[in-house]
Amino acid sequence: MPSPTSPLPLRRLIPNPPFYAAAAAARLFHSDSFVSSSSDDEPPLADELFPAAGAPTLLSVARSLSHSPSPSVSSVLGFLHRLPTDASPHIFPHLIAALSRSPRPLLALRLFLRPPTSAATTHHSFNSALLRFPLPPHLLPAFFFHSLRRFPRLAPTLLSFNLLLKCVCFSLVPRNHRLYLEIALRVLHESIPGWKLQPDKFTYSTVVSALADAGRVDDAVALVHEMVVDGAVAAEAFNPVLSAMLRARDVTGAAKLFSFMQLKGCKPSAATYNVLLHGLLVCGRASAAMGVMRRMEREEVTPSVLTYGAIVDGLVRCGKLQDAWKVTEEMAKKGFAPNEFVFSPVITGFCKSGEVDRASTVWDTMVAGGVRPNIVLYSAMIDGFARCGKMTKAELLFEEMVEAKCVPNIMTYSSMVRGYFQIGDSSQALSIWEEMLSAGCTPNAVTYSILISGLCNVGRSKDAMMVWKHMLGHGCAPDTIAYTSMIKGLCASGMVDGGLRLFNDMLARGDADPDVICYNVLLDGLLRAKDLPRAMDLLNQMLDHGCDPDTVTCNTFLREIEVGQGKGREFLEGLVLRLCNRKRNKAAAEVVMVMLAKYIVPEAAILEMVVRGVCRQKRVWRVIDKCWDEIWRF
Fold first, then answer.
1. Contacts of range 332-335, beta carbons closer than 8 Å, 24 or more positions apart
2. Half-sphere exposure of 581 toward its Cβ, with a 13 Å CA cutoff?
């Protein structure tokens, strides 16, 4: 990451291939002869905009149509045909909005491109079209510039460009980050200056946030520097970059950027502190998070419900569930009512840690406080009951959820299926699966994994293989858990070669990467089949792929190796040496702990090698952490 104080080349993010190539459009961008047909600042109810006597009434009807959840096409078109020729131009943006939500949304596009009068094309209708047209994001710029060519009297404002960038960068459809970010950068660096407009903080914040969300943190930092040079300094642009850095556990980079932010006179907002608190807690930096809280107090930034929510979620993510619950209780004492977004991580955390009784207590407190559970809370609580085998309580809560008009989703059904398989009721699990399909829920990789794992655990490997083929046939790429479940079922059925072929298929397809659990399942199958040479080859492959062995790996090999004759010690010492040579000291230390637990004392040279590697690393990081804790405090 570039240093916040080092100079960066501006405009370096512009990609080479253009996203539009028309000479007429290029001449259009640099023309000074265009004037706006209306101003964005005009009050929509001004008397001069309504020369016809019935115009205010017509506007109210148009507004009612635009606010309708599913307006009728015939009603909108009938109203449009009855409009007088001198109707207000501010009626048409509402009609465009109504048609865009109708069963025929392309009529909205047709109304904008072929308006009944030239006065109907205003900045308001243009901006409304950008926000509401059902066009793919990569086609929006083409529509944008086509509209400018079609209506020569319409000149875009900075608001129009900001709306275009917002639609391109934050579309809810599946995105090709490279394509959309290329478009956004072209708009920022070429189109906006071409119209002699100056990007503001909203322009930069939109693109910076998109870059950070796409994982291009270095490019986002470079654009923040460009923003500062252009004189548009805003905390809204720094916040997404800080969040991305902390998600990547780059606490050092986040601290530098935070210092740079203050150096340039940008005052941190409450949202900035929320990002820092949440990110630092997730990274396990509780002392640094407390330093941020003290800074908030000194700068008289009042914590909000969002602040407490960020703290609670961060504490849960770093495993401090009891502290998270104490913060939730502290909120009520300070006059802040916890909402469902504050209770959700606490309940989810207790359920995942197996403390379902504590989760039930939090649930009762939440309901007594008047907070209505949402789909996330219901699903989390049902999953907690299912993981503990309390399917009776899970069924009751599922029925309560349906009665509360909260529609179960794929995660809710998946939890129920897992729970029934866990208590050995495979028929009821399959019944829930069929109910899920009939409800219109499409299974995903997680759901398929649960079904495959459940069938394999009850000895129905052939049925699991049928489900596997069904999953592949429907274009659902299996994840690591699905592969592991299927490999485990094949190995348990004595088909170790089939499991090994499936493992190699996983590596070849690249759909998922094997983890230590997947390797352990296959190693166990090979060793039970007395195939030690292939097991050793697989262990070497595991190390080459960067996957560290754990206690289960060591115990699996020790089970098949004669420990009494020294072969177990020889194997484990060789494993420690291979890990140390690969600079994976933590994994080597775990193997040494396994040796000591088995009363196998490693040689002094090997023990010294591991101790030096672990202690040196810990000492360095301890000093670094202490330095950054001091920086956050001040």
1. 332/369
2. 8
Q: Say if CB 331 and CB 341 are below 8 A apart.
A: no
pTM for the model stands at 0.62
Here the tokens at position 331 are 């909120």
The contacts of residue 197 (CB under 8 Å, 6+ apart) are 157, 158, 161
User: 520 exposed, middle or buried (CB, 10 Å; 0-12, 13-18, 19+)?
Assistant: buried
618 and 274 in contact (C-beta within 8 Å)? no
Residue with the bigger pLDDT between 42 and 126: it is 126
Beta carbons within 8 Å of 358's beta carbon, 6+ residues apart: 321, 325, 350
Q: What DSSP element (H or E) covers 626? A: helix 604-633
Residue 162 and residue 202 in contact, taking contact as beta carbons nearer than 8 Å: yes
Q: What angle do CA 583, 584, 586 make, to 5 degrees?
A: 135
Radius of gyration of the CA atoms of the chain, in A: 31
Query: Residue 87: CB partners within 8 Å, gap ≥ 6?
Result: 52, 55, 58
Contacts of 399 (CB under 8 A, 6+ apart): none
319: left (phi over 0), alpha (psi -120 to 50) or beta: left
Report DSSP state, residue 173: S
CA distance 409 to 407: 6
Locate 510 and state its tokens.
């690249």
Residue 589 has which token pair? 């230390």
Residue 190, SS3 per DSSP: helix
Q: What confidence tens digit (pLDDT) does each residue in 62-91 have?
A: 777 777 777 778 888 888 777 777 676 777
Give Dmax (Cα) for the chain: 104
Is the dihedral angle over the CA atoms 558, 560, 563, 566 positive or is it negative? negative
Q: What is the pLDDT of residues 124-167, one digit of tens each?
A: 667 766 666 666 666 777 778 877 788 877 778 888 888 888 88
CA distance 557 to 535: 9
CA angle 192, 194, 198 (to 5 degrees): 45
Cα gap 164→171, rounded to integer Å: 11
Chain-centroid distance of CA 325 in Å reads: 25
Structure tokens at 114: 């072929």
Task: Say how many C-beta atoms besides its own lie within 10 A of residue 305's C-beta.
Answer: 14
At 95, give phi and psi (nearest 5°): -70, -35
Task: Report the residue count for the chain.
Answer: 634
